[in-house]
Each structure stands twice: as C-alpha cells, then as structure tokens.
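Q: Please design a sequence for this.
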C-alpha cells in the first residue's frame, strides 16, 4: 500500500472531532470508519470517499473525481478524488460532509 502521510495528516485533522472514528489499512489505502462503516480513505494518489449510491452524480461532475472500479465494474457510491480535489479545502470538505451524512445514516456495525 502506497501511503501519503500528508493526506493522512489532513484527514486526521478533518475527522478528529467526529465521534467513534477508527482507522486501518483496507482497499490498498489507509481508511477511516465511523461506527464501523467505511467513510473515506487516503492513498498516495487519491482520496477515497463513500457516498450514497443515489448521491454520487454531483461528485462525478467535479474535475478530478472518478468512480471507484473493481476490475471493469463501477462501484456506485464510491469515488476517488485526485490531488486537485483533496488539495482544495472547500471541495474536500464538501465530499467529506456528504460522506458523513451518508455513513451516519447507516446502522452501527
């Protein structure tokens, strides 16, 4: 797993006040979970964000946001944001806020 200490530090700062946050290695990146549900991740070249399957179209319209793929299959509700996106405080916050809204609506694991 190619990690990005700079992005991980940004994510720690963004998520430090969220109750019940944990983290671990998963999907080839370092991820953060809330209530046991995956919220987001960081790797060398991108930030992973979990959105609702019905709420990812707006994010995919942003330059620098692409769908998460498993082989040739698109994973609805999961997106990768490149440095142009996660390096922009407002865009990163918009993605994280949407991810938090969705993940907080899920039952705790």
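A: Design:
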């Amino acid at each position: 797993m190619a990690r990005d200490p700079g992005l991980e530090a940004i994510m720690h700062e963004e998520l430090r006040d969220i109750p019940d946050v944990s983290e671990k290695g998963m999907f080839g990146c370092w991820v953060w979970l809330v209530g046991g549900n995956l919220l987001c991740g960081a790797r060398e070249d991108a930030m992973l964000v979990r959105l609702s399957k019905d709420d990812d179209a707006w994010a995919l319209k942003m330059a620098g946001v692409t769908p998460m793929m498993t082989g040739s299959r698109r994973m609805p509700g999961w997106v990768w944001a490149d440095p142009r996106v996660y390096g922009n405080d407002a865009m990163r916050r918009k993605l994280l806020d949407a991810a938090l809204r969705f993940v907080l609506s899920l039952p705790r694991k």
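Q: Thanks. Anything notable?
A: The first helix runs from residue 5 to 15. Helices lie at 5-15, 57-60, 83-86, 89-104.
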